[in-house]
Amino acid sequence: MTVAQAADITPGDNLVVESIPPIPAALAQTVDRYTQFRSAGLLSWHPQRREVLITTRFGDVAQVHRVAFPLGSRQQMTFFSEPVFRASYQPTKGDYFVFSKDIGGNEFNQLYRYDLATGDVTLLSDGKSRNSGGVWSNKGDRMIYNSTRRTGKDNDFYSIDPTNPKSDRLLAQVEGGGWGGMSWSPDDRQLLVMEFVSVNESYLWIFDTNSGEKKLITPKDGKEKVSYQGGVFSKDGKGLYVVTDRDSEFQRLAYIDLATFKHTYLTSQIPWDVEEFDLSEDGKSLAYVSNEDGISVLHLIDTATNQEKPLPKLPIGQVSGISWHRNSQDLGFTLVSARSTADAYSLNVVTNQIDRWTESETGGLNTTNFSEPELVRWKSFDDRTISAFLYRPPAKFQGKRPVIINIHGGPEAQFRPSFLGRNNYYLNELGVAILFPNVRGSTGYGKTFLQLDNGALREDSVKDIGALLDWIATQPNLDKDRILVTGGSYGGYMSLAVSTNYSDRIRASIDIVGISNFVSFLERTESYRRDLRRVEYGDERDPKMREFLLKISPLNNAQKIKKPLFVIHGKNDPRVPLNEAEQIVKTVRDNGVPVWYLMAKDEGHGFSKKKNIDFQFYSTIMFIKETLLK
Hints:
The protein has 630 residues and is α+β, with helices and mostly antiparallel strands.
């Protein structure tokens, strides 16, 4: 993307732009500060030194950087045209790290070794299939990862010594795309594995790390589906720490005795989901994060007593990627809040001192005045309470404010209050309020709520937005006559569904990498994902379900879309194929409704390259001004 001598921005050759009017260069200059936000995420502790690997962006895409001490300079280690979001040090010496990246957002990740002494990069995987995970042995001499290379859809297990790519071998064959390794036993003879069927159903296995023989440790004969979301061996190898919703509405931290398989629950006092945890190297401390009405709360348990230890209070926001240093004192994590972009931090659990490792730039903007989220609730069609986070524009904007409803993807996900990045422009400069709803089917509110949109209940979540439109009409500071709906992935489907069901109540909609026809989506999504998605949406091979999916698909109701539509997609999207965008664009245009279209040839499921994100941002501002603010 270049700024031409003329007064308009010229999109790059990688972008397909249709019906989007010329974008004035002056617009890019006006909004530039909102495109310069950076963020950083903790990736890995060095095993021998108190330093970290992080991911952050200085050029067009995020890369791996090394930070030698808190708030030290960021030394860039990888230099690729594609983003690198995952890397981990060899866990005993730390003389190299393993990272993964794909090409053009196709998600067919390859594993690579980066040697710190030379800067050399060596391909470890086959260069063709989809490779994921990567769990280190305690000795650091092997890594077990998953690959689809055998069939294209089954996530088999492979073992490799990263210093010797020729050691790569198939460890165990499995069926399905939902398998992943989690933890090696202390003696490195066993690997704890999760078999993911759906967000409501998963199983734990133990694999022999030499023979690949496997043993199921959570039975499949129960009447109720049980979810396991994580697991790690205890330090003595006699048990497992896991997160599960077994016998509970919410995900709890539990200890499983491997001799008896008895579950001992450690967090029953918290009526919310536990979402991630990590066990210290010495096995004495267990850190975990609970999701309490969308806010992350960090906790620490003494494993000898199962008693909680007091911790200093963190800013209200999201805590993720918690990771212990081998010294068993420093707990690293990534923290993001409404007024602070994501950065890497650590907490010393002996001194309770919090260290900030990165301080990412915010484009020169003073973020202390950015809007804080407000939790709002309304009653839906069946009297069930649904919630959202509302960001209001500054008080300088008088009168009823136009509204953007931004619906998360998943659908097994949840909007959590965090830094809004470019979205702050809509609040601070355009005076638009933004609502982020968590409709039924969202995580974080218990497994009953999570299943309320499955299969034939799909459109009930759309009705939740209909009820939200009713609620907006009752709010003195929100304008029911100026509403735009948007979302990405499943949220893209939701924005299309809202525009078919409530076209008379919105001004416009934006569909980002969204599903327009459930049947064509299920038939064309990558094979390793297909069965996992059928569990959520329904099996299109069943005639009755196929008929239902076709009935509710926005493509087959496109004649009801009467308001302008903006469709954004990546050519290499493996999850929601490009066909989903192309068919809704053509159909709605054939009905005489204005459709803007933006497609990036070098992106997948959402844009990751700054130049593409920027052009999407400029176009979206133009669309909002044209449809919502007039």
